[in-house]
Structure formats: structure tokens, C-alpha cells
Specification:
This protein is an alpha+beta fold and 178 residues long. It has one domain. Helices cover 42% and strands 34% of the residues. It has a 6-stranded antiparallel sheet with strand order 1-2-6-5-4-3. Helix 2 runs antiparallel to helix 5 and helix 3 runs antiparallel to helix 4. The chain is globular. The protein starts with a helix and ends with a helix. About 4% of the residues have low confidence.
Length: 178
């Protein structure tokens, strides 16, 4: 009985730690929705990566062994989950409809994401979303679509702290922006 309980505890802790190591439902939904939208063209996965706390820990250790640890380590400490996918769009005889379907924004909104940047030009679309709890930004989500590629990226963590550290370290030169 004790052995079973110990296995159950270890399994539970492992599942909690690795929860970010698998793609989220939102990520898969966005991927499939855009793939359906560009039909009859198809998408092939070039690269897909999901890193949760368990996989980010060795990455943080490796970064701490480099000469640049002072630059990257404070930022990495605030990240808890990263998902990234790059997909090649294989066109058919017809050009695909290049559009991020409205159902993507609806789904992300229902999951707590709010859009803050949307750029659409001829053959390119970019959308950025953020997720917030109280006044803390806890997630950034990006979708980039053009005639050749789709890129989806999601980062979760204490992102307000990353922004705060970047501003403290590098300043925020408003005069260069306006």
C-alpha cells in the first residue's frame, strides 16, 4: 500500500511539473483552425517545441554556464512555459485563403486571451494576444501567417517582470518611438 501511494505521489508531482511540456488545447485549436481555413493548401510541421518547467530547468542551467548568464538568466527565471510551432504551407494550384479565422480570436478570448496587436497587409497577417490576471501579464501569444509559413508562439510566466527588467536595464526611449 505504501509503495502504491509513493508511486502515486511521484506520478502526480511529475505530471504537475510536466504540464507545460505538452501543447495546450488553444495551441492545437489555432493550428487546426488555420489549417482548415487555408484548405485546399496543406500545412507541414517544420518545427514544433513545447517546454515546461521540467525542460526549462536544464536550459536555465546551461545558460548559467555561459558568459552571457547575466543577460539571459533574469529573464529565463520568469518564464514557465514556451510553445513554438513553424509550419510550411504547401500550396495547391489555387492560392490558399490567407486569413486567421475569427473563430481563433473567439476561442482565445474564451480562454482569457485579449488581442493587442493585429496587422494585416497583402499576404501577411500578424496577431498578438496577452493574458492577464489582476495586473500581471502571465502570457503572450503570437500568430504570424503568410503565403509560405505559419508561426505560432506562446510564452507563459511572470511576463510583467520581464518587461519591468527590460525597461530597468535598457530604458524605454520614447523619443525614439514618437
Amino acid at each position: 500500500m505504501r509503495k502504491s501511494l509513493a508511486v502515486l505521489w511521484v506520478s502526480g508531482i511529475f505530471i504537475l511539473l510536466c504540464s507545460g511540456c505538452m501543447t495546450s488545447n488553444d495551441f492545437n485549436y489555432v493550428e487546426k483552425s488555420i489549417e482548415n481555413e487555408i484548405y485546399p493548401a496543406t500545412m507541414k510541421t517544420n518545427f514544433k517545441l513545447s517546454l515546461g518547467p521540467v525542460m526549462l530547468s536544464p536550459l536555465k542551467t546551461i545558460v548559467n554556464l555561459t558568459d552571457r548568464k547575466d543577460k539571459a538568466s533574469p529573464y529565463l527565471d520568469e518564464i514557465s512555459n514556451v510553445q513554438f510551432g513553424v509550419y510550411k504551407i504547401d500550396k495547391t494550384n489555387k492560392s490558399p485563403k490567407l486569413k486567421i479565422p475569427p473563430i481563433v480570436e473567439e476561442k482565445l478570448n474564451k480562454s482569457g486571451w485579449e488581442i493587442f496587436i493585429r496587422v494585416r497587409e497583402k499576404n501577411e497577417m500578424v496577431e498578438f494576444y496577452y493574458r492577464q490576471i489582476s495586473k500581471d501579464i502571465i502570457g503572450i501569444y503570437a500568430i504570424v501567417l503568410n503565403a509560405d509559413n505559419l508561426v505560432i508562439a506562446e510564452m507563459r510566466g511572470r511576463l510583467a517582470r520581464i518587461i519591468e527588467k527590460a525597461v530597468q536595464e535598457h530604458g524605454f526611449p520614447l523619443k525614439d518611438i514618437f
